[in-house]
Design a protein that fits this description.
By secondary structure, this protein is α+β, with helices and mostly antiparallel strands. Among the domains are: about 60 residues, Alpha-Beta Complex (Type Iii Antifreeze Protein Isoform Hplc 12); about 100 residues. The protein is about 15% helix and about 25% strand. The chain is built from three helices and eleven strands, in the order H-E-E-E-E-E-E-E-E-H-E-H-E-E. The strands form three sheets. Strands 3-4-8-7-6-9-5 form a seven-stranded mixed β-sheet, covered by helices on one side. A two-stranded antiparallel sheet has the order 1-2. Strands 10-11 form a two-stranded antiparallel sheet. It is elongated, with a radius of gyration of 42 Å.
Length: about 280
């Protein structure tokens, strides 16, 4: 009886340990499914060109890391969408431009701007890290261009073991002047851009940007809307003696009004005559 009691007690203790181990394993599996990485996701379908509002962003746990996804809300809200994003999808550099100034190799007054590679045409194998390119809008109505932009790096798809190149990159990182970042992002959201390779030693500007009013801004009818002005009177046509003394440098002067001649009638011995006075 004593031996049976001892064995029974050991059996119950063993069963209890097995249940505890099973419970710990289930808890670990559940934690693994939750994920170790939290990224910003869209709460609804959003279209390209829209500004991301605070209510459009939520966070979701993922089991795998994604270098192109955003971990901070401030990196997503009030940003222009470069591509459509469905509800529940994570915001990545494909959808939102990523601006950074942390790279110590950047020149003063420049920022690192990461944009989706799918938005660019004219990609060539000659374009590598360190290459300088010109960027043009592919739209005929848009004359935007940016000259002599340096390629800083390429970003590949998450989990890919291939070395990112311009042909397989998901995003391209450019060195962009601070004052040009806003226009760059805006034009990417409007349509495709074209990359043109250039010699890094060539400093020539490919296109001169025009600011303010240009002749094309004015229609032919604008001049017709001006009031009719009197024609100029040549100096040779002015009456003699009406020009003041001194040097007038060839400029026309106003004409003096003519002096009214005074006259009276006189009747003397039934003879009427006129007398004029100077």
């Amino acid at each position: 009886m004593i031996t049976y009691s001892v064995l029974s007690s050991q059996q119950k203790e063993l069963e209890g340990k097995e249940k505890l181990i099973e419970l710990m394993q289930n808890t670990k599996a559940q934690n693994t499914n939750i994920g170790d990485y939290a990224y910003a996701v869209a709460t609804k379908d959003l279209k390209s060109g829209e500004l991301v509002a605070d209510g459009d962003v939520d966070f979701k746990q993922f089991t795998q890391s994604d270098a192109t996804a955003f971990e901070n809300r401030s990196d997503v809200i009030n940003k222009v969408l470069l591509q459509d994003i469905p509800s529940g999808a994570a915001f990545t550099t494909v959808h939102i431009a990523k601006v950074s100034g942390d790279n110590v190799s950047l020149r003063t007054g420049y920022r690192s701007l990461t944009l989706p590679a799918s938005n660019f045409q004219g990609k060539s194998s000659k374009m590598t890290v360190g290459s300088n390119v010109d960027i043009f809008s592919s739209s005929k109505e848009n004359g935007w261009a940016l000259d002599n932009v340096k390629i800083m790096s390429f970003e590949g798809s998450a989990g890919s073991k291939e070395v990112p190149t311009i042909s397989n990159a998901t995003s391209i990182n450019f060195e962009v002047p601070v004052e040009s970042i806003g226009d760059f992002i805006s034009n990417v959201s409007k349509g495709g851009l074209v990359l043109v390779a250039r010699n890094p030693k060539d400093k020539k500007v490919t296109r001169i940007k025009q600011h303010g009013y240009t002749p094309s801004n004015f229609g032919g009818n604008s001049i017709n809307s001006l009031p009719s002005l009197p024609s100029s009177v040549p100096i040779s046509n002015l009456p003699e003696g009406n020009l003041p003394g001194g040097d007038v440098s060839g400029l026309p002067m106003p004409i003096k009004p003519a002096v009214q001649v005074q006259e009276v009638e006189m009747i003397e011995a039934n003879v009427k005559s006129k007398v004029t006075f100077d």
